[in-house]
Amino acid sequence: MILLGVISAALMYGVAVFPVDRYLPEASTVSLPIDWIFKFCAFFSVPILVYVNGLMLYFVVRYRHRPDEPMDAVGSPIHESRLLETVWTVIPALLLIALAVVSYLVIPLYYPTGQAAASAVTMEAIGHKFYFEFRYPGLTQSVMNEMHLPVGVPVTLDITSAEETTDVATGAVIHGFWIPEFRLKQDMIPGMVVPIHFTPREIGTFRIVCSEFCGLGHSHMWGTVVVQSKPDFDRWYAQQVQAGRSAAAGVAPINLAAGNAAAGQALFAAKCTLCHNAAPFAQRKVGPGLANLFHDPAHPRLVTGKPATPDNVVDILEHGAHGDMGVMPNMQANGLTAKDIANLVAYLKTLH
Amino acid sequence: MAKALHVPSDAEYADVSSQRLLGFLFFLISDCVIFGDFIFSYLYLRDVAPVWPPPGIERPYLYLAAVNSMVLFGSGATMHYAMEGIRRDRRRQFVAFILATIVLGSLFLAGQAYEYTHLHDTWAGSTFGASFFTLTGLHGFHVLIGVIYLITVFIQTLRGTYTQQRHFGLTAATLYWHFVDVIWVALFFLFYIY
Amino acid sequence: MNEQSAPVGTVASHVGGHIHPPPDSFVKKYIFSLDHKVIAVQYFITGGLFFILAGLLAELMRAQLMGPNNHVLSVETYNEAYSVHGSAMVWLVIIPLLTGGFGNLVMPLQIGARDVAFPWLNMLSFWLFPPAGILLFASFLFGAPQAGWTEYPPISLQMPFGTSLWCLAIFLIGVSATITGLNFLVTIVKMRAPGMTYTRMPLFVWATGTTALLSMIATANLSAALAGLFIERTFGVPFYNVARGGAPVLWQHVFWFYSHPAVYIMILPAFGIVSEIIPTFVRRPIFGYKMIAYSSAAIGLLSFMVWAHHMFTSGLAHWEQLLFMALTMAIAIPTGIKIFSWVATLWGGKIRLDTPLLFVLGFLSTFTFGGITGIMLASVPADIHEHGTYFVVAHLHYVLFGGSVFGIFAGLYYWWPKMTGRLLDERLGKIHFWLMFTAFNATFLPMHWIGLLGMPRRVATYDPVYAGTNEFVSISAFVLGFSFLIFLYNALRSARHGEIAGPNPWGARTLEWMIPSPAPYYNFKDIPIVLSGPYEYGAPLPYANIRQDLATVPVH
Ligand code: HEA
Ligand code: HEA
Ligand code: CUA
Ligand SMILES: [Cu+2]
Fold this sequence. Notes:
By secondary structure, chain B is mainly α. Chain B has helices at about 10-50, 60-85, 90-115, 125-160, 170-194.
């Protein structure tokens, strides 16, 4: 018993001082209490596990039927003990009540009851097949897959899921919005908007992971969240406002001849490989493989049904496409400029 | 199976039929859960919908359903008297009332068929239609099975399978029939009144 | 209901009456058999085959997950593999083996009955099972389901025809489970031997009875939910599709209203097996019989009230989150009572560490661990981080594999002689145990860690930072798969070389051990009379009307 007590105490100490932050940064305000709850569970689970396993082993060794004992020897006839049974009902009950109360206190920290905190920036996160869309107040266009947040400013995120169509076959599905470093997760459910609330507390770049099966692209549905200092954030935001204005002012005509294949390649790696391989048509990820786009005898036509000419590809990149495989985002959604498109087409032409 | 070999004694018959009755009761409970599931779905969809019934959908016509309900409840009463008939060994009463039950049950089905053909909403038309047709359809299916079952036990009784002492099949049929009635009360309330 | 003990001495007619002659044709004896013991073996064989298939799918998945960006399986095939793996393990392996297999084999014997209440229904239930399994695996030909064993819409509405086959398959197995539940419940209520009051029933019967009640109610609900999904997929009847006014979260409610009770359908019989094996090998009365029995009932009741703990990230209202969290945690209390009572039974015993007990000890260790990770999931804020990750995958394998599968193997080693008349080899059994136990922990323990660090479930590729752990997990999973070959060899070997068991090789005291092994057709020549509880080691046997020459304590 004493030995088990010592083992438990040592492990409990280990749990208490375990540096979670070193393995997975605690990058938002809600990370701390959630990790605390987890540690609390682990803390009281340790003695339960140690005693159940330890006593089991000890009894098995101590009360073994020995060869010199008669074959029909039997053990203690004790049937029950009120005291023991009460103890092992009451103690777990108390621990669980404590856990429930602590959890109860933590829920409102990320799950705003009634009014969201007044000072908070409210923005939207929308799940698509297979990328995340963010809408900022004051921005005319959305930001794709890369969320920027200022450190230390409380945020309320309205989380939902949407697709361009209402057709069952390609309609919206459930995604999961998860930032492990923030310990935050909310399913993105079509037809429902669920707000969550938090404050980023560390500068850095963290992952956004889709945690709910949403189809073929689920395995690849990743985004990033960039937590910046306030000035950095403001600079980024100003750029976005600028980009929105120029988009509204009309898209500059696309000058294909000026396309730069090397720049296109870099862009492709950054923005397109989420959904496309630089491989033959059949090796699809979300969308089709794009090597041979212009020279594939098996696929003389694009998914839009038009011939594979540069102009028609530009059309897809500008306006997106929507067919059997899913949705190809338009240029705003992909964050492309007219120049980017020219570069991409130049690069795509080089692929065989 | 070896039917003819063994004629059960009264005590054995009582044992076996009490077992079967319990089994039948359990069957009704699980059947009830199936209705419960769709009723829950109906209430849930109703709860999340911004307006109810969904825009452009009319509720089915109350008066027809009310008349039809009376027919079904009437058949519950006649079933009761039919059962009394067998318990007291009054053959004529039994025959008259079980025939009445069968006729009323069929009338109910006819009424429902009429209603189905005269509604604008369809099964796949709206969430209201989905719940309405699934639940009333499932119920109608139960009534249909019930009518067939009643005809079967009726013929069996004429052939002498069931007697004043031994009438497990009839007891089960009565239970089933009353169960179908009770479900209808819930559906009637949910779809025509609530 | 008047359920007082029948007066001792009157062998009431209600427990079987006359004896039919055994069937004479091969088909009636082994294929369309009405005998609960033969049906049990049919369940074991069919379920065992599906276990191998579902396990091989898991090994394929692990091969794909060996490294990031592997191309062993395409993404589609990977999705199909885990969906069918999960569905098959739950519905074609664990539930049929525990209720159809052990329930059929043991429960009628333990209550001193000649068969179940409705043998014909029993046969029907079994024969719904192989077609269901074939449908499920046949769905691979038509684009198997990809949305996991939970098949959440809307994505499951967008999948090819295989998902409809999945609906049909699970519907069939659901009907089968409902019928079995009904049948068992009537059997337990009506067919106990005279003198066997509820508090004299063996604990396995308690567990089977509670499970039967859960199967009957919860599974009926599953059938309805599946019918809903099927008609929406086939006829476009809007229940779950938002664009048409439906609600995807509705499916989650109705699915989990079945599937949470289902996880107790998958563990309660295993609890029952543990409660039988412990007193037998410890040679002392089980500690806290009544608390163990009533806690089964409590778990059964509570299990209907916790379903939404799978939906803490689905935007439930506040009060719902709190309510379901509290009720979920409440389940740990009756479960804890069981665990502690079992450990306390070990105290002061005369313990024989034979293979069945070894598996039970393994069960205690791993299931407790899995239960505790369950508690970590039950806390709403913690679940916010853990939901949809490998932490959940680890939890579910700790309870389903560490609980149910360990329980199944314990039961197999224990009742094998009653089924076949021969013992399994002890030495091979022990090797099997240690290999399986070690490989099991090596496979599933690291999953907790990578889950917490950020690896979501149901993905065919992952961030390379998890590569090392995943490789280790995959290798352990292959070893785990290998460990079952030892059992397979042992089972085949015992048919020829197994030691002849005799009626009661373990010195147990429940009724199934009071008759020859394998049990004769119609089980008991005379219906036994029960005089007291089943675990009173040291006291004379509490039965009248049994053949004394069989009811001996073994000498090895
Ligand atoms: C056999 C099956 C089985 C069993 C028995 C359990 C038992 C429990 N499960 Fe588990 N669970 C699953 C199978 C099972 N589960 C499956 C398959 C899933 C995933 C489904 C999917 O999404 O695919 C799942 C998922 C799951 C979730 C959802 C996670 C998520 O997706 O976000 C939750 C959340 O609450 C949960 C909780 C619990 C709890 C509290 C118990 C409790 O019953 C455990 C109680 C036991 C103990 C606690 C141990 C013994 C007790 C003591 C020694 C007493 C002292 C203890 C304390 C004071 C803590 N489980
Ligand atoms: C009782 C249930 C049960 C059991 C026993 C298992 C057993 C195993 N499971 Fe499974 N699993 C589930 C139930 C179960 N699983 C469920 C419900 C899910 C969730 C699905 C979902 O997300 O929807 C899941 C999901 C799941 C995942 C997550 C997939 C994902 O989210 O992407 C993984 C990944 O590693 C996995 C692995 C394994 C492994 C390696 C085994 C191994 O233990 C298997 C070992 C067994 C064998 C290998 C078979 C025996 C083999 C032989 C006897 C060899 C002889 C062969 C011949 C002679 C031909 N399982
Ligand atoms: Cu989006 Cu998974
Ligand atoms: Cu659950």
